[in-house]
Every structure is written in structure tokens, then in C-alpha cells.
């Protein structure tokens, strides 16, 4: 998990000093990009939302606190092209509890339990604060897993299979390639100090399961 603390948009002091005119133009471009992404926030444009609506039908809805995510309109404003795998360093109940805490400043879209339960806590169209990097938060869906990185016994058959079905469904809906460039571990996110899912997460097994589940779904 990680708060919304990645790269900020804007023009740096050095750019302003070197080329004021260019910097002003650049600022205008950035402003237009932000406006293009934010049009739907206007009161008469925002898409209707239904409390508890699921993006993945096998999940159960348990809402994270709104302070732990940011309303968006993905993939219309931000392309979704990554899935980030996390391990919570605790129980399934712990993950749900901390993501409901507004002081935690982080949440993932989904939590997967050792028994195969899946909870959705943030809508996929919204930006969850899970990766510790703004750009990655905006382009990814985060999946938390019950357990501890130093306890391989926590990564059960039911968990791997449930998580693989979820990831395969996400990849289908957003056209994400099923490979390790696009399905990544939290530790691989630029700027993070996290190590999850750790050395005991069986990536070969997991990716084979995701590929198998993806093959069962429509193109």
C-alpha cells in the first residue's frame, strides 16, 4: 500500500528560469490535459453511481473510506494498463479495517483472503492510493492479499486461484497483456520502499493461473 505521493504535475523552477515563454506554453498544455480529464466532474456531467456497485461480480462490496482514494472516470481520464499485487502483512479483516480508516491514507481496489474471498473496496473507475506513486495509482488496479511476506503458507491454493480469476477478468476488460511487465509487484513500483508480495509469492504459478483463466474468457 502507499499514499498518493508520486510525481506532481506542473512546471519546475528550473524550466521557468531557463525559458519563461516555453514554460508558459507548457503550463497551458498541462492545464488543458487536466481539464480534459476533469470535464466529467462538472455537476451536470458526472456519471451516475450506485452505492455498492461491483466491477467484478465475484466480489463482495466493502467500501474503503473516501479519504483513501480519489474520484475519477477511468479509463476515460486515465488509461488502466497495470495490475499491482500487494500483501497486507496481516489478516483479511485487518486489510478491510485499515482501508476503512481515513487516517490510513491508502487502500487497494480489492482484497483477497486465504480462503478465496474477494472484497471490492474502491471502484475501478476511481484512483486508489495503493502504490505510493501518483502515476502508478492513476494507471493501475491494486489487489491486496491476506498474509505476511515471510510466511509462504499464507499463500494458499484458494487465494492464488481467486486472485488469478480476478486479475484475468481485469486484464480482459481493459485489454491488459498477461505478462510481468503489466502485472507487477508493489516492490517494483518506482519510488516505493515496500517489499511485498515478497520472495515467497510464486510468480510462475500465479502467472500460469492468470493465463489459464484469461483463456477461458471472451477476447
From TrEMBL:
Domain named N-acetylmuramoyl-L-alanine amidase: residues:
69-198
Q: Which SMART domains match?
A: Ami_2
Its name, as the record gives it, is N-acetylmuramoyl-L-alanine amidase
Which residues are the signal sequence here?
Answer: none
- Enzyme class at the top of the EC tree: hydrolase
The record's keywords, sorted A to Z, are: Cell wall biogenesis/degradation, Hydrolase
What is this organism's lineage? Answer: Bacteria, Bacillati, Actinomycetota, Actinomycetes, Kitasatosporales
What PANTHER family does this protein map onto?
A: N-ACETYLMURAMOYL-L-ALANINE AMIDASE AMID
* EC assignment: 3.5.1.28
Kindly give the CDD domains that the UniProt entry links to this protein.
Answer: PGRP
Q: Which InterPro entries match?
A: Amidase/PGRP_sf (IPR036505), Amidase_domain (IPR002502), NAMLAA_amidase_2 (IPR051206)
Task: Name a GO molecular-function annotation.
Answer: N-acetylmuramoyl-L-alanine amidase activity
- Report the domain of life of the source organism: Bacteria
Short name of any one Pfam family annotated for the protein: Amidase_2
Q: Which reaction does it catalyse?
A: Hydrolyzes the link between N-acetylmuramoyl residues and L-amino acid residues in certain cell-wall glycopeptides
Amino acid at each position: 500500500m502507499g499514499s498518493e505521493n508520486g510525481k506532481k504535475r506542473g512546471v519546475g523552477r528550473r524550466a521557468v528560469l531557463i525559458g519563461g515563454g516555453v514554460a508558459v506554453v507548457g503550463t497551458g498544455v498541462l492545464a488543458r490535459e487536466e481539464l480534459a480529464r476533469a470535464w466529467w466532474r462538472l455537476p451536470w456531467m458526472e456519471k451516475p453511481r450506485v452505492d455498492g456497485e461491483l466491477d467484478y461480480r465475484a466480489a463482495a462490496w466493502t467500501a474503503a473510506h473516501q479519504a483513501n482514494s480519489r474520484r475519477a472516470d477511468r479509463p476515460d481520464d486515465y488509461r488502466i494498463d497495470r495490475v499491482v499485487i500487494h500483501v497486507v502483512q496481516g489478516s483479511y479483516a485487518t486489510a478491510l479495517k485499515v482501508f476503512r480508516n481515513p487516517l490510513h491514507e491508502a487502500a487497494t481496489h480489492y482484497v483477497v483472503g486465504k480462503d478465496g474471498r474477494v472484497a471490492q473496496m474502491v471502484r475501478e473507475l476511481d484512483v486508489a492510493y495503493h502504490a505510493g506513486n501518483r502515476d502508478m495509482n492513476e494507471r493501475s488496479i491494486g489487489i491486496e492479499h491476506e498474509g505476511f511476506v515471510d510466511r509462504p503458507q499464507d499463500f494458499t491454493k484458494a487465494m492464488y486461484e481467486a486472485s488469478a480469476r480476478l486479475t484475468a477478468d481485469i486484464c480482459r476488460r481493459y485489454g491488459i497483456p498477461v505478462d510481468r511487465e503489466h502485472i507487477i509487484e508493489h516492490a517494483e513500483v518506482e519510488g516505493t520502499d515496500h517489499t511485498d508480495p515478497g520472495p515467497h509469492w510464486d510468480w510462475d504459478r500465479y502467472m500460469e493461473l492468470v493465463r489459464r483463466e484469461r483463456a477461458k474468457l471472451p477476447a
